[in-house]
Amino acid sequence: MTKDEIFDVVDDEDKVFRQETRQEIHRKKLKHRAIHVFIFNKKGQLFLQKRSLLKDNFPGLWDSSVAGHLDAGEDYDLACLRESKEELNVTFESPPGRLFKIDACQETGYEYIWVYRGLHEGPFSLNRKEIDCGKWYNIEEIRRWVEETPMDFTRTFVLIWDLYHG
């Protein structure tokens, strides 16, 4: 993650029309693209990551198993595979199943987001530049936690959770 990263800027229909740096996209609140992956184990538990304190957005907050921007010219499925490898050192043979897409809005940080669902038992090798720690949680635990202290999570995770679990 660097401020010099180049991302695609997209229109209201998620069509690319130019590129900008990460820093400019976030500063100008331009629409861009991201993925989130919910990784479950055989027990039905969901792996959550606590974002590194080095992150420029939402440091130290809990988030999806994997979350990341699409690089310029990259499609959602490739980003899903790349980010899973970069953040958790998980290699999927093919992209996990797509659950749903969220339109860019203030809650997503102006990102169009495809949410994926993958299966993996771990263990994971966490990228410490991106992730402080991670843990498996039961769905009911997460439901109560989000309900009681939503400020522990990124606002994007809370939105995704509400759409997934609601």
Describe this structure in words.
This protein has 166 residues and is of the alpha+beta class. The chain contains four helices and nine strands; from the N terminus they run ββαββββαβββαα. The protein has one domain: Nucleoside Triphosphate Pyrophosphohydrolase (Alpha-Beta Complex). It has helices at residues 22-28, 76-88, 139-148, 155-165, and strands at 6-10, 16-21, 32-40, 46-51, 62-63, 66-69, 97-102, 111-119, 131-137. Strands 3, 4, 5, 6, 7, 8 and 9 form a seven-stranded mixed β-sheet that branches. A two-stranded antiparallel sheet has the order 1-2. The chain is globular.
Helical coverage, percent range: 10-25%
CATH class call: Alpha Beta
Sheet bearing the most strands, described?
Answer: 7 strands, mixed
The total domain count is: 1
Percentage beta strand = 25-35%
Q: What is the annotated CATH architecture?
A: Alpha-Beta Complex
Structural class: alpha+beta
Overall geometric form: globular
Write down the Rg: 15 Å
Encode the helix/strand succession as letters.
EEHEEEEHEEEHH
Unreliable residue runs: none
Query: Could you name the CATH homologous superfamily?
Result: Nucleoside Triphosphate Pyrophosphohydrolase
- Kindly, what is the distance between the CA atoms of the first and last residues, rounded to a whole number of angstroms? 32 Å
Quickly count the helices.
4
Round the mean pLDDT to the nearest integer and report it: 95
Number of beta-strand segments: 9
Features:
alpha+beta, seven-stranded mixed sheet, 166 residues
